[in-house]
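Q: I have 285 residues here and want to know how they pack in 3D. Can you give me a structure?
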Amino acid sequence: MSIGGFLQKRRQVRHGESVLWRTAALQSALRALKPRRRCHVLPPSPSLLLVIVTAAILLPVLLTSCGKKGQEGEKKTVQKSEDDFLDKDAKPDERKYLLAAKPFFIAVASRKYVDAYALLSSHARARMSLDQFKPAQQDSDVQQNQSYAFDNVTAEQFAYLMQHVEAAHGAPRAPKMLHVFSTDADVLNRRSKEQFGAMDSMFAIGAMPDWIPADIRRASLRGQIHTELSPQELERVAATEGVSVEALKKSEDFDPYFNLKVVLVDEGGQLKIGYFEFLPPSMLD
């Protein structure tokens, strides 16, 4: 995949907005100092001129200082909670699904694959294919990936399969985001009659096996995990972009990650990971 899958363009307009705001505030202050009555207009006194000049000099400085303090305050609040990557706009009834999937995302992002394995349901452990970790790049790879499967997967086998994810996307380092995609039972079971029902199911459950019971599927969630590229991969990407590795790493647009799709199931009254897929960055992200 090209670097376009890793780079995200950001447009910053705060500086321009702050300049316009300071200008408008200064104009308002000067208008307030002007005589309101048109009759008996007198030349401004030296003291009034001093007030105007002082306001013109100090107001932009003071407003800029406040702006900097506000921005510094915003920076200090970033990543204070381990829930920061959870969808802030989730509906109240979706919160339980975010909290249920959160430990799995944190374990994967921390490269604690044994811990992540412990959060899988018996259905997820029953069978895993390479396609869940390394999606086929072309049609000829699909059958090969699906044939490369494990039954009754162990923690050691799961950790081994995660090496394919790291080889393709880099080593996980932190959760980026997580949101609930669907809780519609028809979508979760490929039964939707809506116009785009089949597409919704594809995004929601991917290649989730039909043998996983329909009545235990509760929610589909999609999220992203930040990664750190290997030195060799960094050099390859930098060469592709025509920049140095140092310049690439300093770029605000450089943000490697991968997507992670999970389907929660009810197993013995507990929400567990019933199915998952690791996916590359997409234009739809």
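Q: Anything worth noting?
A: The first helix runs from residue 14 to 33. The longest strand covers residues 171-182.
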